[in-house]
Amino acid sequence: MTNIIDVKNISYSYGKTEALKNISCKIEAGDFVGLVGPNGGGKTTFAKILLGLLPFDYGNITIADQEITTFNNFQKIGYLPQKHTGINPIFPACVEEVVLLGLLSNKKYQKKIKGADWQKVEDILENLGIKNLKGKMLSELSGGQQQKVLLARALISNPKILILDEPSTALDPNSREQFFTILKDLNNQKKTTIILITHDTGYIGKYANKLLYIDRKLVFFGKIKDFCPSGEVESCFEKSDKHIIWHQHN
Amino acid sequence: MIDIIQILQYSFIQKAFISGSFVAITCSSLGLFLVLRKMSLIGDGLSHVSFGAIALGLFFGLYPLYVAIPVVILSSILILKISEKARIYGDAAIGIVSAVGIASGIILASVSRGFNVDLFSYLFGNILAISNNEAILSIILSLIVLLVIYFFYWDLFSATFDEEYAKTTGIKTNFINTLLTILTAITVVLSIKIVGIMLVSALLILPAVTALQISKKFKTTLFLGGIISLISVILGITVSYILDLPPGATIVMLNAIFFALALTYKKITKN
Amino acid sequence: MKKILFSVIIIIVVVLGGYLLLNIAPNSDNDSQKISIVTTLFPQYDFAKIIGGDKVNVTLLLPPGVEAHAYEPKPSDINKISNAKIFVYTGEFMEPWAHDIIQSIDKKVKVIDASIGIEMIKEEGDEHEHEHEHEHEEEHHHHSGVDPHMWLDFDNSKIMAENITKALVEVDPQNAKYYQNNFNAYQDKITQLDNKYKNTLSTCKSKTIIYGGHYAFGYMAKRYNLEYVSAQGFSPDAEPTAKDMIALVEQIKKDNISYIFYEELSSPKIAETLANETNTKLLLLHGAHNLTKQDYENNSSFISLMQENLKNISIGLNCQ
Are residues A101 and B154, on separate chains, in Cβ contact within 8 Å? Predict the structure, then answer.
């Protein structure tokens, strides 16, 4: 199995805060990685570094055989940001337009959008079962629907890697179930590498095959089975680190 | 009613309609991006900076507009940088730069012991007093701005909608933000000279906000804003002639009426 | 360490700044012998200088280049007025803010309303001139209906000068003769100017002044029986309507007018538009509210400005 993401000794500080220290991991294509850790421990920071949104002070990262500093295959990465970022309620954007934004990574100037592109939008909406929402304004949708739209945006370019930042925190149990099932299918059928940041340690145990546990430094990276032989991932967390705040899912 | 067609024989009326229309579409289009980025007051803010810039130009004995344009461009970039670094919203950054602009103008005017023309006069614009050069300028400016918006449409949309996400799709958001800022600066300075600050401020904000009330798609909003501003200018000049009112103010009032109508429409259709 | 260094630098700057400010602040006038007069507009400034001669020190509140109608006094202006012996303002219609200042300053300051004794012209229903004032940051003189530009009728200029003379005589009776003599001499000069105007303007082929500025020359037009049409009302902030502009264009064409006049200091855009539309030329008609920097350098006086005006009117109206 090839390493699709190779992280070597990444460190990052801002101001006096040492956000990440000496993180290394090799993520293989097709991995479903649960990125966990305490609040403020650097999970989102790490993800943002992978996405090129933040710089780093030391170390090296290779994504899909490209050095991150010269990385330009943005269509290979899909991103679903944390819920509170992004959506301005008065912003006049309909679902179709928002999802199409995910295709821009494929395009060179003048970034013309053709009929085939709109068809791709329809297709991905259909795949996620939200084709009926095509013309609706994003801010009119429920939390669960919005997440699906943003997932569609992340997936439309057929990315090899999907990075999701706490995608299920605001979802009700049904929606959450649906959501994770979609992700698992993606992982199984298309071998999409998934890195999912979550507090929800219970769910992670069910779906992910690997665990990346960061608390400023690397606490653990590897198969979940190795971290938690019993499979009861929640209980493993309780034992390993008392600082973790994990969410009681209802 | 034949009257109205007759007034078109006057070149200053023709220029009012033509330049007014071009300026309207330019301002309303840029305005949509500005409003969504909480930068609605940049028109006012940059007019204050122009005041200081013109004082600076006169102080050094240079043609004021040649000084005003680069200074306003730099100030608008400064506004951008302040709102990024100081982590405040655009409107506060605008307030800072704008206040400094006016204060500089006042100090310069005082230190230089006077000028030959009233400072504010350099910025004086009136839709009925557009010169031939200004008319041509308004068309060229419009075409440039609209072309840029057309060329970078999706990048502008993505960066305005969700800047962080846009970066992850390879969009150079710094470039896009700077581009938008510079376009705004140039448009504001030149448009103020052509139609006056009152109209520019209004056209930057009102048509966009009106379109926002009734549109669900971004593309529609952009077009609708343009159409609304265009109608407000054409209808505004016509109505101002019939009722013998100053045209600039009439156009602004029409925009306000359109906004009220859109708001009402939204309320009605909500049920 | 950085923080300490920063704080030290700030303290040094503040101390240095304070020292500099205290030392380069302009010293109070050493000519304490002279009578200090503060005036609002240029005409009374000029009159006061001429009548007072070397016995007075006159200050004009308006800095050069600043447009008079939009002017609002700064705290330093109020200070200047308080410290003056005599304060001359144009009248309540030109400076509505004067009233409040007068209430607040020392009773020792002799306040002169230069318009006392002058009959002000009320607004006529002139179809070309409208009062469309829109909000700026400043206050406008809202006593709409009265034309404040009285100094452009030379009889009124004499009355203004006389009011100033009376004030000087009251404040400094020892030199009464000096002031009287200066006033008399000046009065003669104005009479000469008036006669020149009368003679020249009686020969004009055209009798209409088209003004692409605000309505400032009502008094002058009335005095010499000229028709005077302006694009704007009493204040330069007013915006003309389309009908206003069209009416002016039509009149220019109908009366075969070859020259359009523009005003000092304000943007000449409206005059230029009219000229462009009718293929006519532009000439300056200086309202003498305030001087430009250039005027100062040329040592312009009220009379010199009016002489220039006469020259331009002669060209514009085709006079002898």
Answer: yes
